[in-house]
Amino acid sequence: MKMSMSIGYAGGFKETADQVVALERAGLDQVWIAEAYSFDAISQVGYLAAMTDTIEIATGILNVYSRTAALMAMTAAGCDYVSGGRFILGLGASGPQVVEGFHGVPYDKPMQRIREYIESCRMIWKREEKFHYDGRTVQVPLPEGHGTGLGKPLKLINHPVRPNIPIWWASLKGLSVAATAELADGWLPIFFVPERFRQVWGAQLDAGLARRDPSLGRLDIAAGGMLAIGEHLVGEARTKLLDLARPQLALYVGGMGAKGKNFYNDICREYGYEREADAGAGPVPGRQEGRGCGGASRRMAGARQPRRPTRVDQGAHRRLSPGGRHRALGDAGERGPGPRGGTAPLPARRVAVATRACAGGLL
Description:
With about 375 residues, this protein is α/β, with parallel strands linked by helices. Helices cover about 35% and strands about 10% of the residues. The protein has helices at about 15-25, 40-50, 70-80, 95-100, 110-125, 175-185, 195-210, 235-255, 265-270, 275-280, 300-305, 315-320, and strands at about 5, 30-35, 55-60, 60-65, 85-90, 135, 140, 165-170, 185, 220, 230, 350-355, 360. The strands form three sheets. Strands 1, 2, 3, 4, 5, 8, 9, 10 and 13 form a nine-stranded mixed sheet that branches.
């Protein structure tokens, strides 16, 4: 299992970077950087690569429409180079609102496009041959009748630090989840509940894993969620922490996607939270103390978290509370409340873990 945190779109970046450095010293394994239609993630990858030594730095996620397949491969190889082999390429399709509305690119064949980007990146990184790809969404060099006709296959000039940079795929439904299990090094799902995930994605994961190349190894999974440690985190204190997660859950259940076509709402239903899905189908809820979060009940928020005390020994305490900080966040695709300010160190005895860290499960 690995611990991770995410960097979203709000807050001071330099302060957050300092937090990443402190958490790295405490043993944090990964940091994920969002992009969407905010500042590009790659600039932040480079900054963190210069400030850190061991932590893995990942994009969560880059869409496969705003960069060509070759540029995606070059960018990932460059990030792996400046980080000394610590980069993870998180890919996804985003959605038509961003791709067509912001980038001005047709949103077509998203699953096929990600598949071809993965194959293209791995081909370019290996440098076994010049890059020539004739796919449905990626055609390099340009075919006859397009462009000047002067293009020719090329090979990446430099040898990448690693020819197998990890690729994680953010997929939600159906065939894309099966393709993720077949092709990707890691999977970035949403609303992952370890006890129930198979009722939503079991058949698709099994189908993809049956076609998976054994050389890829097992499939890593970002479980998502938040982590908080403290003896007092029981009862009402635990409830208040769960309420911090509810507005974000409700935003996805009720406010993402086009009207009548919200995959996040569908996943909520498939987990068995029909009441929450119906409540979340209205306006985007507010963020006040867990109220107005119709699409995310405490029952749903709590399903993603451990519900019993966890033994934390002195070593784990040192890893999870740098500078006396008690909370280390982890979520591959969302920004949660991060540790701010110092508190007294935790005693090395049984404590209540109120929420789940972003952990790497394995299939």
